[in-house]
């Protein structure tokens, strides 16, 4: 019979980086650089709500960490370390090996090593909790409340693919294996801009990740910053597989503006910072696109290429509605 | 319909202490004192494994945080802040109000404010994840590997009550309402020595909390520190309701030596530190008792008042065996 200790040493324990204490004591130990703050966030992923038992375990391990690293990126923080809580209905070594491989692989790439956690049995279904710890120079974190009128509005990465993949998988769009193959990685293996985001601290103003959809998430910035915005739909960096999919333009527009599960950033920055932002994005191999502007007057308006108002899809994703 | 945002503002959001950013952005922000390290730990509590749906929600809120604060205490760290992940089968305002009251009440008393989290729906059962963040002077954390031969072995608080309450509740001991009333708080409302533990950093050597039972947990220290120990059963601070319960001495001995869920410390310290440890314990209103000694020779021996070997109950609690 495998004990909790066997599982920890087989799947979770890795050498901790210099200056940290990792898995094996009551707590992990780490320190931010002198004069820096720690940023921290936690997510709970529940079987049946956020994923299904039959989902690919490697992708699940990757995504469980990615959605949390995305929260660090949204503060302009660089990853330091993470904690993993895992509750299992049964011990399935094939599943555990693939899950932890997906998790550790991103952890290593993003320099966010696993330094602690909890493993336990769950009678009902699989539960994954991830807590990330990052660091950002004191006072430079990108807050939702920091957008200012005339700021450019930027997004990183491409929009529309995660939502199209989800709708295809749910059968809400007609089956299209080629389109699913081209969009599924956006949904299953999101790659938040962890190497680019720290460059925004001290350069950009407000930021968040597009987990609930661009309109809803930008709405959080506008509410917290007491301002409004205009988005130019023609500027949106739509995933090319979505643009050329032949899907109804309204379906694409909904995917781009309201589709959630996009672990990329929406941020605002003064127009003087445009060149430096683009230079940082090139260095990090991240696509950064200006899609609109913050305005003093409240309200969120989207205009098309002719300057006409685009009618907006209702709401984003809420975990309880 | 309550949205996730409604629940957050009603039950979870509290003013963050000066210098921290609390609930409401992608991450919380905080910093340890200059020259201190952060200590962090996470626990997953699952309905059906760690608690039952009908358990008192106020006690559950208290205990979910207490077991994590206990991990900080076991490093000699003082609490800084915590994160709460909560996954709910349904929204029950009576339950949520009582749970968060129990949680916030301990958070305030232990100066461990809630600064972030995640709330989501769970189809199967209630899931609680708590992550704590604490701070300890760099290099002074109490590690499991730091016990040295001739160290005194100490425990805080009283032993035996949590296990007796659990056995009574499981029906494994004959029903005894008075005994249950006298012991249930040890199980349901554990009060880890969070105000005493930071005084041990720099004074004691090794420490951990007695979550899996004294013998198993001390075994972890001995294994990590490559040494052995002798415990004096006659010195054990047995809860008075247990001592005078009339229970079979073997049942009591098992509860004292192997009973888990005791969120108190077992720690080792040089004999020169005895007076200072007792003075610190008095100031913190914590009972600290010397119960044995670390020895160079491997092996864990328990002797009775006559110096005779006590036969040991098998193992502690493992979440997968």
TrEMBL record, chains A, B:
Pathway(s) this gene product operates in, as recorded in its UniProt entry: Cofactor biosynthesis; thiamine diphosphate biosynthesis; thiamine diphosphate from thiamine phosphate: step 1/1
Keyword Magnesium part of the UniProt annotation: yes
Positions with a binding annotation for Mg(2+) 2: 43, 71
UniProt binding sites for ATP: 117-118, 144, 211
Residues annotated as domain PurM-like N-terminal: 24-136
Coiled coil: none
UniProt xrefs under CDD domains: ThiL
Residues in PurM-like C-terminal domain copies: 149-303
Substrates-to-products reaction catalysed: thiamine phosphate + ATP = thiamine diphosphate + ADP
One Pfam family hit: AIRS
Residue positions binding Mg(2+) 3: 26, 71, 209
E.C. number(s) listed in UniProt: 2.7.4.16
Binding site for substrate: 50, 261, 317
Binding site for Mg(2+) 5: 212
Binding site for Mg(2+) 4: 26, 41, 71
EC class name: transferase
InterPro entries, sorted: PurM-like_C_dom, PurM-like_C_sf, PurM-like_N, PurM-like_N_sf, ThiL-like
Residues that hold Mg(2+) 1 according to the record: 42-43, 118
GO biological process, one term: thiamine diphosphate biosynthetic process
GO MF annotations in UniProt: ATP binding; magnesium ion binding; thiamine-phosphate kinase activity
Keyword check for Kinase: yes
Record keywords, A-Z: ATP-binding, Kinase, Magnesium, Metal-binding, Nucleotide-binding, Thiamine biosynthesis, Transferase
Miscellaneous comment: Reaction mechanism of ThiL seems to utilize a direct, inline transfer of the gamma-phosphate of ATP to TMP rather than a phosphorylated enzyme intermediate.
Similarity section: Belongs to the thiamine-monophosphate kinase family.
Functional note: Catalyzes the ATP-dependent phosphorylation of thiamine-monophosphate (TMP) to form thiamine-pyrophosphate (TPP), the active form of vitamin B1.
Record's protein name: Thiamine-monophosphate kinase
Protein species of origin: Allopusillimonas soli
Higher taxonomy: Bacteria, Pseudomonadati, Pseudomonadota, Betaproteobacteria, Burkholderiales
């Amino acid at each position: 019979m495998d004990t909790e200790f066997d599982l920890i040493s087989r799947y979770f324990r890795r050498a901790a980086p210099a200056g940290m204490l990792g898995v094996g004591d009551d707590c992990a130990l780490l320190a931010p650089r002198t004069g820096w703050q720690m940023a921290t966030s936690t997510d709970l992923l529940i079987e049946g709500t956020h994923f299904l038992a039959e989902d690919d375990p490697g992708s699940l391990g990757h995504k469980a960490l990615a959605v949390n690293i995305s929260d660090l990126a949204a503060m302009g923080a660089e990853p330091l370390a993470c904690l993993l809580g895992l509750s299992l209905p049964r011990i399935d070594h094939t599943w555990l090996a693939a899950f932890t491989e997906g998790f550790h692989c991103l952890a290593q790439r993003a320099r966010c090593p696993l330094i602690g956690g909890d493993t336990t049995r769950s009678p009902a279904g699989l539960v994954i909790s991830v807590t990330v710890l990052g660091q950002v120079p004191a006072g430079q974190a990108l807050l939702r409340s920091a957008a200012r009128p005339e700021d450019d509005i930027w997004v990183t990465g491409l929009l529309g693919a995660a939502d199209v993949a989800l709708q295809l998988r749910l059968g809400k769009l007609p089956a299209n294996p080629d389109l699913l193959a081209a969009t599924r990685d956006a949904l299953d293996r999101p790659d938040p801009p962890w190497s680019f985001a720290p460059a925004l601290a001290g350069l950009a103003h407000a930021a968040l990740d597009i987990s609930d959809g661009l309109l809803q998430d930008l709405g959080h910035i506008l509410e917290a910053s007491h301002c409004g915005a205009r988005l130019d739909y023609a500027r949106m960096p739509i995933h090319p597989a979505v643009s050329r999919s032949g899907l109804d333009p309204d379906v694409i527009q909904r995917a781009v503006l309201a589709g959630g599960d996009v672990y990329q950033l929406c941020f605002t920055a003064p127009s003087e910072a445009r060149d430096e932002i683009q230079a940082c994005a090139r260095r990090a191999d991240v696509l950064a696109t200006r899609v609109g502007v913050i305005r003093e007057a409240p309200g969120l308006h989207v205009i098309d290429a002719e300057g006409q108002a685009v009618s907006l899809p209702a709401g984003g994703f809420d975990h309880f509605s």
